[in-house]
Amino acid sequence: MKRYSSDWYWFYVINYSLVIIIIFPIYWTFISSIKKPAELITSDPTFFPRSATSEYYDRILNYGIRDSIVVNNDDKDLKNNPDEEGVTVDRNYQYADKGNIKRAFINSSIVSAGTILFTIVVCTLGGYALTVLKTPFKNILFLLIILPILIPGISLIIPLYKLMRELGLTDSHLGLIFLHTTGMLPLGIFMMKNAFGSIPISLREVAMLEGSSELRIIISVMLPLTIPGLLTVMVFAMYVSWNDYLLAFLFINSPENIMLNIALQKIALGGSQFEMKWGDLTAGSVVSFIPIIIIYAFLQKYFVRGVTGSAVKE
Amino acid sequence: MTRLRKEQIVGLLMVLPALLLLAIFFLYPLANSFYMSFHKWPLFGKPKWVGLDNYIFMFQDERFWESLKFTFVYTLTVTPMLFIVAMGTALLCNAKAWGTTFFRSVYFLPVVMSFATASYVWLWLYSEMYGVIIFALEFFGFGGSDKDLNVWKTGTSSMWAVNAMVTWKFSGIQMIILIAGLQTIRDDYYEASKLMGASRWQTIWNVTLPLLRPSIALALILSIAGSIQAYEQFVIMTRGGPSNSTKTLVMHTVDMGFDYFKLGPAASLGVIIMIILFVLTVIQLRLFRKNY
Asked: CATH code at B184?
């Protein structure tokens, strides 16, 4: 939009103020995570840390997460009165002292890597079949695959829980990977379909004349040309699986398999206002957002494309 | 076997993994959510057909109405906040000026963080005793002279505190959608409007906004649908408190299903959420298409 030159001053004042507001919570979390307790827990906050320590990182990475508490017991009466179906069950909030952030970080990485891998394999094959090949019922199949856009997965958690129990996929990383991959299908197939669609069909024909198999053609001829689409799908798969909270909360219940976001919840619920939990929690938050911010720094374009592409889905 | 037949078979085999995942983890649970909502699910033994009992149970439950009301209040308050910030930053970032790419990447930055992590970060900022936002608010005179401000004290203040976090976290997505829309508006329109002597606000109001309607619709749908599904931010920041005043529909569903093990009513809640989101999306699309 055209602007009037006298306004540039305000343009930059407003923009830089916003930048400071946006960055501040992240900066504050970071410096909080390295301040010594005496400087952290004080009513006289410092905007540039005077002390530095790695004790919170040490603690959360190497020792178990303390776990004193639980639940918001506003519904106590209801819990003590077994309902007509005759059971009361306490949600399993209490974890033994085994899970720690290092473990959780590795678990989250496993699930993210698995989701990325499954997603690109499934979506590449599906997108290829629905675009390049003369697959029967192409259009119907495509509509079926993007159907979940209209029905958010969150409304299916109850039947999903039952299903996962029946399949023995609760408390399993594989189970989470399957769910995240399924969630990725509409966007992933859509993106890969577009990516393959923009490649001239003659390329495949040439490769076929040379006697290459279909898989060979995909891997060595087509895929290199779909790198932007592929990266978008991968980055978004990472975003979805690394940032998930609800599924990790519902389907993982042993401390060895705990996911990062849930491990942070353990820290947040542990301790009290006066204890050290804030140091641990800020350190944990840094551990959880650093990987995704690094990826954002390098693959920004694909990130924006993936996340806004999913906008239709959300 | 002809080449065509072979290609068809290969194609079906390739799309099979996607279809299997879809059938097992989406279509089956989808069908089952209706089935479950019409049955009673004892922990042991067979499910029993109960017709609409689960729905009746749920509708007679005060907590359902409370959570529904809260979810709507939250949606109605957070949507304008998100939209105004997103619109402002989109207009700012659409200027042809040095630094807009940088500003845009910064405004999008919080989006990449998970809702959970953002909630933990802001939990610290809002900490009653040592939170930096609390210090700032107290400095400006909130919380009275004894400086005992606690945003989690009442349901309303809790909600606004969460709204602020969500606006920080999420307006970047809407900004990108609006920028994409702004970029489709040709410069001629602005030049014509300038020639006709329109002020900047007149131009925004009469040229930019009407032409931006499809993007605005998309941004609003996104925000409304997302807010109806709100979960993490409230579980982590308010835990539904104080006294259940910030319990969202999804939280209520999770409690129903996993705290009280009332699978039938919980499944019917899922169906209700599904219908609400579906209807909202259709209404929104209609609304914005009519005048376009």
From this structure: 1.10.3720.10
